[in-house]
Amino acid sequence: MKTSQGVIDEMEDTDNSVPADLQPAVNQTTVSPSNCHVTAETDCDLLPAPPEKPLSSDYPGSGCVSPSNCHVTAEAGCDLLPAPPENPLSSDYSASGCVSPSNCHVTAIAGCDLLPAPPEKPLPTDCCGGGCVPCVMDIYEQELKLWEEECRAIREGKPRSTKRNSDAANDSPVLSAESYTAFRLEHIQQLTSDTTSDTSVYRFHIPGDRRLGLAVGQHIILRGTVAGRSVTRQYTPVSPLDATGYFDVLIKVYQTGVMSQYVRTWQVGDMVEWRGPFGTFTYRANQYRQVVMVAAGTGITPMLQVARCVLGNPEDETVVKLLYACRRYGDVLLKHVLDEMAGFWNFSVSYWLSQEDQKSFKPKYGDEIHHCRLDRTVLSAELPPPGSEVLILVCGTRSFDSDMLDHLRALGFPQECVFKF
User: How far apart are CA 49 and CA 108, in angstroms?
Assistant: First the structure.
């Protein structure tokens, strides 16, 4: 009888090995647990699945696999770097050769100065030839100089010349003609809207209850950036010259206008850049017996300034007559202001509507309405005879201004009796 120990010894002496030709082939690659039945008893560590090898498309330009596509950790020598910055397109580059801040992730550390967009050069046809001060060509030269100074300051590590109005002392000028000041947009009031344009009054805050500092008939310049280009436009504030703590600007936003693209993005709280004042118009109380204003559309804005100046002075007995041309009655801007002025003995306004349906519209009682365009015949009937005691003011679209000036010359009004805003 064999003891248990004997059985064990006999089992150990028995050759239970599998012939080599029947053994499965084993390569050098470790079999993953999901496909292997070998346990730790047979020297298998139950290793986790190996990391998936990334495709070539998973690699960004830097040569390192981004974290979203890579299972390799820092233990494997990968720092899990974030995705590298996107390479800018050629269209993202401004004329200066530097990528503009809105399209560029490269900072000054990488040698990019993030220069502002250069000013847009006006076309020769942008100049009306009417002797505007400043002319659009003059404004471009000023803007180019400002841009060069700003670029130089950025390269030297200095702040841009644009300042926030809140930074200015209470006794310092609110505006500067040589540099831009940023004002906070406080309120937007829409006046008119149609399929081609919207007209609104934009109110900007002036800290410290200060005045904007304009003289009668002066305007200011707005600067904005559109598609990597710096663009400017001139606007006449419609708020009273003695208004404190704010100023209002009336702007007509067109569907296809360049500056309109910038203005359309405005939201309350935005900081908007202005500089000025500009303009050569001067007025002295009782200098003229009568001032006739010939305006179209948004050309009403400088006329309001002059009319307020006359009507706000009890000693000024100048008679003011406004001929206001619009397409339709609903296009009349700031009608409530004109209605208030009509209450003065020395102010009158007539509306000249070129496209109004006479059967459908309902004008305010007492309004003087004419359904025709302003032309030479109308001006001949409405204007007093030419003379040194009469001043004619003109403001509207370029074609309107050109037509009115031609009519006035034909009617015998000398150049010194006519002023075009």
Answer: 45
